[in-house]
Amino acid sequence: MKVSSASDLLTLGIETSCDETGVCVLKGRKVLAEALASSAPLHSRYGGVVPEMASRDHLEKILGLLDRALTKARVRPAELDLVAATGGPGLLGSLLVGTSAAKALALSLNKPLVFVDHVLAHAYTGAWLLGEGIFPFVALVVSGGHTVLFHWRTLNDVRVIGRTTDDAAGEAFDKTAKLLGLNYPGGPEIERLARKGNPAAYRFPRPRMDEDNYDFSFSGLKTSVFYRVRDLSAHGTLPPSVKRDLAASFQEAACDVLCAKAIGAARRKGVRTLVVGGGVSVNRRLRDLLVERSGGLRVVFPTNELCVDNAVMTAALGQAMVRSSRRRSSRRPLDFKAYSDFFKTFCCPSSGKSYKISPSS
Ligand code: KG4
Ligand code: ZN
After folding, report:
1. Whose CA is nearest to atom 6 of ligand 1?
2. For the domain with range 6-122+307-351, which CATH number is right: 3.30.420.40, 1.10.443.10, 3.40.50.2300, 2.60.40.1120?
3. b/e 135-151 (16+ beta carbons within 10 angstroms → b)
4. Ligand 1: which residues within 6 Å by Cβ?
5. Which atom of ligand 1 lies at the shortest distance from residue 186's CA?
6. Do the strands 113-117 and 82-88 form a parallel or antiparallel pair, or are they unpaired?
7. What is the pTM for the complete model shown?
8. Which CATH number fits domain 133-302: 3.30.420.40, 3.40.50.2000, 3.40.50.720, 2.40.110.10?
9. CB–CB of 80/14 below 8 Å?
10. Per-residue pLDDT reduced to its tens digit, 285-333
């Protein structure tokens, strides 16, 4: 099996962990082509992703997107050096579509395959954009399914130092949006409404903010919004101005906690760089607060397109995994298994919470 110089591997990335179908062709740090489709409009009125609808949509779109990306990149499948697919965590039915396509391609073309962890890929995006000099750094990943703090010391040494103990930040945005009668995905809707609201109108709790650890909790915040909405709507529908204030006050509480924990972690770990990633990191208020409170820290924000789900981050981490491995992986395409749960697979049970990103491990 031929593998060319690891730094400029011609890599096909495939991402299908949730409701975005993403395919990209990467050559080293250059994106040759990207093709993306979303089933979000199908889920909009349900207040969250409907797994069965998401997997069917991936199935309908994946081959067309593969074709479009390869054509746009002017790359023949046989020219690829590596296939990198999101292996998990995510919706299993969705993951199976992308991983099966990746396995079929790798097998039929006799190309190496890597499965990439989706949460880790969100955390790695900023490092990929800035280059090797960025290590060590702390990364905050805030998405619909996960809220995690990583301490990334060298390419091959990354640890989970904090996580949510219940809901993810994006889940709290989505559920709060549903309480306010807004559509899925709720994050952008809350942000839009909050722009004209008063963030000090309601004082919502900041769970775990003053604890001496890096863990988060968002279910209490969401429940607090629920009771407030229930009380306020006891005498009729909520006026738009009240909805705006509720959205702004909720957003302020969520961003306050995220900032405190992420900046606190970066300080205590003694790193100079904080990287953010995941759909919630698109939020303007979160970005402004992080910059405002960063002190001397450098805060790295990937573009909005690279913060939400995409295949570029999958291909970028896939390439890095191959580069970091000292020996060629002996795993064959059919040995890889998609997985739904981040913490069972990411954390190395014997050593606590460290992880080697090399594909041979
Ligand atoms: O990373 P992502 O695209 O998919 C997952 O891996 O989950 O994140 C999606 C999450 C959703 O919960 C969505 O509501 C949230 O990111 N989100 C936002 C914003 N844009 C997307 N949350 C707050 N503010 C936004 N502007
Ligand atoms: Zn994601």
Report:
1. 143
2. 3.30.420.40
3. bebbbbbbbbbbbbbbb
4. 18, 143-145, 170, 173-174, 185-188, 191, 278-280, 282-283, 308-309
5. 14
6. parallel
7. 0.92
8. 3.30.420.40
9. no
10. 999 999 999 999 999 999 999 999 999 999 999 999 888 776 666 678 8
